[in-house]
Design a protein that fits this description.
globular, Rossmann fold, four-stranded mixed beta sheet, about 100 residues, alpha+beta
């Protein structure tokens, strides 16, 4: 199993990293990525950290975008919505938060 939480957005080449991670898992292995999109559409955006502006997913990554990047690499892939789990975040959230769970071929 490989588990990463709020890491994918920090990668300069996330697709290459995802492929490398999947390649390291055994057949039937599990990839769990806890990720999100860090702001609501239409709101003014402040970068999460200074210097992140050049990263492909500097404001986080939507479940649709991450699924599209992971799905060709694995046997199956599903998204679990974590937005409704208020206790995980210390209260309600207005942005997208989820876990992508994938099983390797």
């Amino acid at each position: 199993m490989l588990l990463a939480r709020h890491l994918v957005w920090t990668l300069p080449d996330p697709e290459a990293a995802l492929a490398a991670w999947v390649a390291r898992l055994r057949p039937g292995g599990t990839l769990v990525l806890v990720e999100g999109r860090w702001y609501e559409s239409g709101r003014s955006v402040t970068l999460y950290v200074a210097g992140a502006g050049g990263l492909p997913w500097s404001h986080g990554v939507s479940a649709a975008e991450l699924s599209a990047a992971v799905r060709p690499l694995v046997r199956e892939c599903r998204v679990v919505d974590l937005t409704v789990e208020r206790e995980l975040w210390g209260g309600p959230v207005a942005d997208e938060r989820y876990a992508l769970v994938a099983t390797t071929r």
